[in-house]
Amino acid sequence: MREPFEEIVSQIGTVVLGKQKQIQLALTCLLARGHLLIEDLPGIGKTTLAKVLSKCLGLRFQRIQFTSDLLPGDILGTSVFDRKNGSFIFHPGPIFTQVLLADEINRATPKTQSALLEAMEERQVTVEGKTRRLKEPFYVIATQNPFEQSGTFPLPESQLDRFLMRIHLGYPGREAEKTLLQKGDVQQALSDLRPFLTNGNVMRIQEQIAQVHASDTLLEYVEDLLLFSRSAPDFALGLSPRAGLSILRAARSWAFLRGRDFVLPEDVQKVLPWVVAHRLRSREDYREFSHEKLMEILLQVPVPT
Amino acid sequence: MAPGLHERTNMSRQLRNNTQMLRRGAIYVLPTRTGLVFIAVLAAMLMGSVNHNNNFAFLLTFLLAGILFVSIFDTHQNLTKLEIQAITASPVFLNRTAFFECLIRNHGPKRCSVAFQFPGYPERLLADLAPDSIDCVRVPLKPIRRGVVKPEKMRISTRYPLGLFRAWAFIAVGTDCIVYPAPAPGAFRTDPAPDTLGSGTAPSKARGSADFQGLTAYQPGDPLQHISWKAFSREQGLYVKTFADPSGETITLDWGAIRGAAPERKLSRLCDMVLKADRLGMAYGLALPGQRIPPARGETHKRACLRSLALFGNPEAMP
Amino acid sequence: MSRNSLQQLHLLIASLAVALMPHAFRLPVWVTVWCLACWGWAILCARRQFPWPGAVLRHVLAIAGFIAALATSGFRFDREVGTTILVIMVGLKPLETRTYRDRMMAVFLTYFLIITNLLYSNALIMLPYMLSAVWLTTAVLVHINHPVGGFPAHTKLAGRMLLFAVPLAVVFFVLFPRIQGSLWQLSAGTAGVTGFSERLSPGSVSQLVRNDDVAFRVQFSGNPPPPEHLYWRGLVFSEFDGRGWRSTGQTPVLQPVVSGKRPIAYTITLESRQQRWLFALDLPATVPPRAIAFDDHTLQWKEERTRPLQYRMSSYPEFNTGPRPPEVKMFLLPGELGNPKARQLARQWVSSATGPADVVSAAMAFFRGNGFAYTLNPPLLGEDAIDDFLFETRRGYCEHYASALAFLMRSAGIPARVVGGYLGGERNPFGDYWIVRQSDAHAWTEIWSSNTGWSRIDPTAVVAPERITSGVAAALPPNERAEALSTGLKGPLARVFRNFTLGWDAASSLWRRQVIGYTALRQQRLFSRFGIRTRSSGGVFRLLAAGLLLTGLATWLYVWVSRGRRPSLRDPVKAGYQRFCRKLARCRVPRRPDQGPLDYLQTIRDLKLEQGERAESIIRLYVRLRYAQRGSNEDIRSFSRLVREFRPAPRPS
User: Fold this and answer.
1) Is residue C566 within 8 angstroms of chain B, CB to CB?
2) Rounded distance, CA C417 to CA C401, Å?
3) Which of C473, C465, C467 is nearest to C498 (CA)?
4) Taking CB atoms and an 8 Å limit, are A217 and C627 in contact across chains?
5) Do B212 and A108 touch (CB under 8 A)?
6) Residues β-bridged to residue C220
7) C168 vs B62: CB contact, 8 Å cut-off?
């Protein structure tokens, strides 16, 4: 892996134990200018991962716990009447940050969810008719409980499309669990971390990633995947063009982290399940596929020579 | 086995059922109406050439005839070796346009202006298709009844390059499209009259014993005690707290409860209610004569309900 | 209006403008203005959202245009009016091109406009014009049917279609039955109106020298005769009016009496219009059909002639017109008119001569010995022109000499007359034919003797022998040469230009003979060469078969050329990698279709193949060429070489 990402991954690995793959994917996602959705049970370390990531990348961090009475204004900010000046003053919400952790996003009402998701998409906020741009870099790491629990509003498919990747953390392995118990205090490990990058660095890396070369043959492969997903009888709906771009962006980032300045079909295959699993549903029962099943279907598409 | 061959067999394993290659023999070519006009113009030119005994005019006339002749082959070739790999169609509500999505693979040279259409419906143009590439065309069809719509054939035609000849071929579609009843709007939330809601239960939305569900914007008529004064004090506007009780009362949308309407109208009303209940995040069930779907929530459930509404009283094999 | 339809409108107007261009030079100016105004209007409507004219306004405009066209011609309906009305429609057409159908009709109108141009001119220059106009119009037609594609691509396609339509057109052209015409009628071309007049006076020939127009072209069936025999006989002037000679009083005959040896066969394509005289090599032995022969061995076209004409002739370079004495008028001189010195001289020769031959040689000796000069700009002559010329100025052009000699002969009692025509010509090496220009105009004398009949005496041959062997320019004094040269250019460019004009003239004449002059007669002759007789049903059958065969051949060629090639065959990297994978697959190391190159490399490594390093270097190179898209042609070549030389050992099963 390319310097200094090797080190970043291993650093995060000291806090979030036994999740090398997920850490790499999360890093890939953020460096590709993508928002990340982490889906898992509470207490698995979603929040820790988000915190550690932002700290290592040297980014400002904000966290919002989503609840059913959370209103759009609580995220975006509100204008409050100032009696001294006799005018409204805008109080920016927590969204004006660099990394926003939206915890348990499916607990908020659809209205609040869409306020956040629109801000993610447009990278700007409109409050009371006035539009404010969010400063780059801006990432949203949202977490969500996987099951349709009571009092939750699952994100609709169209909104899910706005997350570049969705990852699952899963329970830590036996080894990791043991280490975790030995270490005890995660907060201590967190505070020991030091940032590896700065704001400017992150922006520059993003630019470099956008320059990573995707040859015609590779584009052809991605196109084949898209078209296949639209025609294969397994899927209720095919991948959207936006999904195609997402695959490409993630693959670029992945290739970059591996020290290459061009994308290979292998890069596409590596990131593919994380990028498309939340965008595809089964035609039969309209459920999501497991990654294994998904790859079994999608790897029918031959790599162009 | 050679990888190239292996690749292709593997790739088309899923697609083979629907794959149709346009072959030379299955493509017909005839002059278009403008083509006939052009032939008439050529005939006039020939008459003029004979009349003036002008060899130069003969030459031009024959040159144009040559171009006309050559264009027949170009038009024909614009369709050969096109492969229709798969046709899919998403369910659609009645009175809306259904789109049959076709995946087209080009095994030949570059194609231009290939039109896809169901006879009697507007055509969809595939403007350009590079050699050895794939593209998707969504061919519209407006269903005239709910249920399963199974168009027999689709016409693929082209007038390229000169518009003087039209080549066309029919392909069997083999895909069906489920057409839901058209939702008929009516009272549901604001007027929970017994004739729209089965089992006599009102939506559990308004009554307060259940779990707090979230906030919705205030509409005149909402009970004042449910207004979220906390949000109002933060100058965020008027919101109403809504509650849901998933463990308690659920609603069942009942065919029998809608009285005095034709069956199709009843289906439309039920369809509308399913959509509304889904939008409000309610748990709902569906009761049709001889068919009952237990209450549930979610996309899968919604689709199941709509599907049974669509197919109600109709055998699968509807034309 | 969308960008697409705006572009279509522009292209339509462009093709219409090209189709209209030649007409603009012959139609009234207002018609061109009308078209430009209408087109400008259409473009304004399309660009600036001006309201489009409604159907009523368009019809009113059309009717107004038709009336104006008829009024211009004085309410006479002829071809000009027809063309004008067509052009008026062409002008209006872009104002109604909003639907696909309208645009298609506009294109058909353009084709029609192109063909009307050909009714006016058959010149070779119209061929490239016609081809490019058809090309452009066809490209516009493609564009209308596929507006989203780029116009350059459409131009390319139209060009390809045109290329394949040409052989088909030629097949149709050759095989299409023509209606029998008696002579090869050629429609109007660029032709001089100037030429000989019916009266020959001093200066009337030298005037023509400055005219470079082509009088006629000649193609000899065998070897061309030597330059001293290239006398092209046109008119005979037999009546002297004291100053000049008139061509009058010929008697038509069925076949003039002439005998000779070794006839020369040739074909003349006569360019100059409005004269009924036909030119032929001295002395014509045959009479072309639909021509009248006269007793003075001149030929005339039977009817009024407005177009160029082609006829086959044969002539005797050495001839005898027989012992029949000429008419009395050949002896006559208007007695009351002057030139006493000349008459005196002639009488002097007669008295000292033993026969007519002596008189002739005396006259020639007189011209040779007395400092006569050949010039384009002779001094003005007085009342007694012959005397003035013979004894005072002694400078003149061929008509001076011919006229003076004939006068002297008649004064000596020998029947004599002046013949007008051309001498020499220029051989065109590109087409192996001769061009005779107006500047080759010449006049000479004929005298009669009882044993040979009429024979040619050319006094110019004595005064300026270069005129006969090398042409006008060589015979003239150096300061006058420029006047007679066909181009004013000098130096190496002049030669290039000369060659170009000669080449063009050759192509042009070929065009006229082979294409424009392809008639029923020729068609039959061509068919019969292949053993096809159009009269018999078997012949027609064979003709049809030939047509089908040729058309089928062209079609097959077209389909073969335009069928798509698989890019894999063209892409050496793709082909090479596929070949590499095939080789490994034969050794039981197949690549799974979903395997990218690095995954495949890992498979190969895991299997620890003998040729593992080679395979690795091939895959690395492939990755660089295919995915990094770096690498030169050299790399592609070495990749192909590596793959070719790759010989993996089979893996034990």
Assistant:
1) yes
2) 12
3) C473
4) yes
5) no
6) C266
7) yes
Contact C594 A217 (CB under 8 A): no
**Which residue is it, tokens 């070929």?**
C510
User: Which of A215, A300, A301 is closest, CB to CB, to C626?
Assistant: A215
b/e map A192-216, b = 16+ CB within 10 Å: ebeebbeeeebeebbeebeebebbe
Selection from B182-191, C71-80, C150-159, C198-207 with the highest mean pLDDT: C150-159
**Is A269–C594 a contact, with Cβ atoms under 8 angstroms apart?**
yes
Query: Looking at the 3D structure of chain C, how many domains does it have?
Result: 4
CATH superfamily of A212-298: Magnesium chelatase subunit I, C-Terminal domain (1.10.8.80)
CA atoms within 13 A on the CB side of A130: 11
pLDDT at position B202 over 50 = no
The percent of residues in chain B predicted with pLDDT above 70, rounded, is 71
pLDDT at C483: 62
What would the DSSP string read from start to end of B133-188? -EEEEEEEE--SSSEEE---EEEEEE-TTTSSEEEEEEEE----EEEEPPP----S
CB pairs under 8 A between A and B: 93
The pLDDT tens digits of the residues spanning C332-364 come to 776 656 788 888 888 888 888 888 888 888 888
C173-218 pLDDT, tens digit per residue, is 888 887 654 333 433 333 334 567 777 877 777 777 777 777 888 8
Would C367 be classed as within a structural domain? no
Report the gap between the CA of B127 and the closest CA in chain C (Å). 7
* Terminal C-alpha separation, chain C: 70
Q: Which chains have 3+ CB pairs within 8 A of C?
A: A, B
The C residues from 96 to 135 touching B (CB cutoff 8 Å) are: 100-101, 104-105, 108, 111-112, 114-115, 118-119, 122, 126-127, 130-131, 134
Give yes or no for B264 touching C (CB within 8 A). no
Tokens representing B82 are 């096109």
- Tokens representing C369 are 């010995």
The pLDDT of residue C549 is above 90:
no
Question: Which chain A residue lies closest to B175 (C-alpha atoms)?
Answer: A233
pLDDT in the model for residue B10: 42
- Report yes or no: B53 at the C interface, CB cutoff 8 Å: yes
Residues C87 and C211 in one domain: no
**Candidates A215, A269, A301; nearest CB to C627:** A215
- Give the residue from C145, C168, C187 where a domain finishes: C145
Q: Are residues C438 and C310 in the same domain?
A: yes
Averages of pLDDT over runs of 10 residues in chain A (305 residues) are 76 78 89 88 78 84 86 83 80 87 84 84 80 84 74 74 87 71 68 75 86 83 82 78 85 91 92 90 79 86 83
State which amino acid sits at residue C213. D
Nearest to B65 among C172, C578, C585 (CB): C172
Domain that holds residue C602: 568-645
Residues of A in contact with B11 (CB under 8 A): 300-302
**pLDDT for A281:** 84
Class of domain A5-199 (CATH, top level): alpha beta
In chain A, ranges of CATH 1.10.8.80 domains: 212-298
